[in-house]
Amino acid sequence: MFTPYYRPRRLRRNENIRRMVRETHLSVDDLIFPLFVTEGKNVKNPIHSMPGNFQWSIDLLVEEVKEVHRLGIPAIILFGIPDHKDPVGSDAMNDEGIIQRAVKAIKDAVPEMYVITDVCFCEYTDHGHCGAVVDGDVDNDSTLEMLGNQVLTHARAGADMVAPSGMMDGMVGAIREALDDNGFEKIPIMSYAAKYASAFYGPFRDAAESAPQFGDRRSYQMDPSNAREALYEVDLDVNEGADIIMVKPALSYLDVIRRVRERIELPVAAYNVSGEFSMVKAAAQQGWIDEKRVTLEILTSIKRAGADLILTYHAKDAARWLAEL
Ligand code: PBG
To answer: Which UniProt keywords apply (predicted)?
Structure first.
């Protein structure tokens, strides 16, 4: 009979030793909670494809942010859903727009909360694309100018960090220049550097009412087949002055997270997107999986792959579960 000499099971015998040799630790400090803000008063519209998530009016959003803060979550990222949409997404660049008023209200009521704004146009344009459309395609360079205007309204409203998600070439450089030229050199940029044209965004587009009205986003978001190209995108954004680099989605792209982690020294964020969240919720509602264990396993795997920060709709649940552990 073969008797093994090496026995890795020795270090798995009880919870104490497992804790002692654990390599990856998930913490509430890692979590960023996405929130959707809409016009009106006393509005809390359930997003049916994302159980437990809502479109909030500003008054109720502020209460929700207090709860997020009580749970110890350090940061939120905000998405605006304006009443008014037009071809260039004017509400996105308006100092009195939905997101700008939401940021002000939150920073007044819960100044300790770190407020990140998503910087994009898809929720604000009537065609649902992430910038100005010329000849049926998003025009890169005129969108850069619009992005500069948009971030200044976020900065003036009091945003702590801006997160451009439109995958325009040069977006980080253009935004850095706009911020620096206007006295906002202290505001960091978290770039959605490697953002894929993914089917996992489906529920988000319901939530944010941002589905493209024609075509798709494949002329600006990345082809899911490509990983080297992600590294090129990341290099460009680092060179243009990004402070944090994001990979999105997370779960089908753990290999990309790992490769980015090994390539750069900046913090890496990963977006555990709406479709990834909703699949877990749906299976849990059917009683097919243990929601808590699956969620914590997923979030841990994203960290193990190399992410320092995780944007996730599971943040509130995870914060509660981590506090129980
Ligand atoms: C674009 C944006 C999207 C998401 C975050 N920012 C959608 C898109 O590119 O269509 C998706 C997030 C998610 O699915 O959770 N502003």
So the answer is: Heme biosynthesis, Lyase, Magnesium, Metal-binding, Porphyrin biosynthesis, Zinc
Residue numbers of the domain that contains 121: 24-324
User: Which token pair is 223?
Assistant: 């082809």
Residue position matching structure tokens 């998930």: 26
- Residue 143's SS3 state is helix
Q: Which of 305, 322, 234, 318 is nearest to 270 (CA)?
A: 305
Q: Are 171 and 195 in contact (CB under 8 A)?
A: no
CB-based burial, 54-81: b 16+ in 10 Å, e otherwise: bbbbbebbbebbeebbebebbbbbbbbb
Catalytic residue among 44, 104, 107, 195: 195
Residues with CB under 6 A from ligand 1: 118, 120, 122, 165, 201, 204-205, 210, 217, 273-274
- The structure's pTM equals 0.97
Establish if 295 belongs to a structural domain. yes
Total structural domains within the chain: 1
* Minimum-distance ligand 1 atom for the alpha carbon of 203: 14
- Contact indicator for 130, 120 with CB cutoff of 8 Å: yes
204 alpha carbon – ligand 1 mean position (Å):
6
Dump pLDDT digits (tens) for 181-230. 999 999 999 999 999 999 999 999 888 888 899 989 999 999 999 999 99
Ligand 1 centroid, distance to 313 Cα (angstroms): 13
Give the number of other CB atoms < 10 A from CB of residue 222: 22
Q: 44 forms bridges with which residues in the sheet?
A: 56
- Token pair listed for 123: 């929720």
- The enclosing domain of 233 has a CATH number of 3.20.20.70
Residues tagged in the binding site annotation for Mg(2+):
233
Write the pLDDT tens digit of every residue in 239-281: 999 999 999 999 999 999 999 999 999 999 999 999 999 999 9
What is the average pLDDT score of the chain?
97
248 is catalytic: yes
Q: Is 270 among the domain residues?
A: yes
**Residue partners of 20: CB distance under 8 A and separation at least 6:** none
